[in-house]
Amino acid sequence: MTRVFDDQGQSVPVTVIEAGPCIVVDTCTQERDGYAAVRVAFEPIPERKATKPMKGVFAKRKVAPHRVIRELPAPDAQAGASPLEPGQTITVEVFAPGQIVHVTGTSLGRGFAGAMKRHGFSGQRDSHGVSLMHRAVGSIGQSNIARVFPGKRMPGRAGRKRVTVRGLRVVQVDAKRNLLLVRGATPGIRGGLLTVRTAAAAATEKPATAKAAGSKAGGKAGA
Description:
Blueprint: E1 2-5, E2 11-18, E3 22-28, H1 30-33, E4 37-44, H2 52-60, E5 66-73, E6 89-90, E7 100-106, E8 109-113, H3 115-119, E9 156-159, E10 162-174, E11 179-183, E12 193-198, E13 208-212
Antiparallel strand pairs: 1-2, 2-11, 2-13, 3-4, 3-6, 4-5, 7-10, 7-12, 8-9, 10-11, 12-13
């Protein structure tokens, strides 16, 4: 993260996201596929680094190989959005300052964690009646069934899950460098993949996929 200053001189904490450009690789139609969607690609790569199946996917649409492909809901034509065609480029200019967006990514992995850290349990008493069990889970329910019910909140691997941070505000849009500055933090590590969509229904938006950026100018980020 970094910060910028608004017109009143207030410091605004922001995350810098490299949002696109994304290329439309394919479209799914209601008549052919039973649902409407678009497949967009992000981060071009040399052809030698693409697998043979992916080379065929890109060659079919005469698009250069890319590292990431995501299928996203198609813009709603009834809402006035123009349809997307294969080969079309989606840039960061689909967003505007002041717009509210939702950012989806993979959260930071925390490794194997206890129940207090993983689930926010309060733990056992710190004074009388407890010995060497202050951070233990305690009772986990019935003891005569010879098993633990699925979904029981216990110690285990924490983090590294698909998370959506909702209601972030776009502070700045840098079309020349394909950078999107949103107020607040986004999920995941620096350089991780993110999906940024408008706060409207997913069917009425033009999404862009990208990588999560570092605080340095030119760092990778995602939209």
